[in-house]
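Researcher: Final request for today, and then I'll write up notes for the group meeting. The sequence and the SMILES for zinc ion follow.
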Amino acid sequence: MILDRRSLVRGLMGSTAAAATLPLARRSALAAIELRYGLEPRQAAPGIWLFEGRTEYFSVRNGGNIVNTCFVDTGEGLVVFDTGPCRIYGEEMRAAIRRASPMPVRQVVLSHAHPDHYLGNQAFTDVPIMAGPATRAMLQELAGPFADNMYRLIDVWMRGTETVPPTEDLAAGLLPFGRRRLEVLLLAGHTRQDAALFDHDTGTLIAGDLVFWNRAPTTPSADIPSWLRSLDRLEAMAPKRVVPGHGGVSEGVVAIRQTRRYLEWLAATLGEAAEKGLAMAEAMRLPIPAEFQDIAVLPGEYVRSVSHLYPAIEQATLPRIN
Ligand SMILES: [Zn+2]
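Model: Predicted protein-zinc ion complex:
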């Protein structure tokens, strides 16, 4: 479902004709929203700050502030990791970074091509915006529908937001500047390409959406076998702490393991459901194990995963009849 963005924007800009078509309750709810997140960075490790989002699904109430974005002081400028879900977020983030550090932003690194991670790019057009080549290709293909969907989810918060594509290819390896050993990892599985940063100096992994912590992983673009291989790679780096794409900072590798167990359960459960010939609606009602009961956004995120993943799993499982 793609929203007619022009008519929505007209409504939001206060055209009485368009506004009159919105239900009264919705109109007054939107008018009451103050478009300010109150973003404040907190330190995750020496020289590494994050803006921690809520472990909720997108809503007009949270304005899409459900994602973690970061910045790292390299000693020769700041590297920003992801820019959030809209222009307002990006601008607030930039202002908060300015208050927190006298160092200039040197470049932006984008983790992947999901809109809650790059739609704040408008606030960073004066610096290189880097993304892996496959991320750039995916963004080129899907930026339009992704922005439309975000208008549907967070509404007024998207006011004035335009997609700013990345300007340069991000390469794997140590960043070629700065005084800390900050390594770019180019992996895959959550999407076609997922970038993470590993700070060798503090043992901090900024994992992007390869890792979720106490928040159910999202799977609209996922390839679970490749995601699991990426998690092996991240665990092998033995991080002291992990800043996930969604959820709080965690010590050691617990968040990597939780993400892995959830994905393994998801893949096994849907595989078995397809073997048994369950319909999609039946697969959606399967019980969630006790170990995941306290994970946020369940069972909603599980139901969404079934809708994304089940058709292909059924295809692969059903016997071919010639
Ligand atoms: Zn995300």
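Model: Residues 67, 114, 116-117, 209, 245-246 surround zinc ion (CB under 6 Å). Confidence is low (pLDDT under 50) at residues 1-20.
Researcher: Thanks, that's everything.
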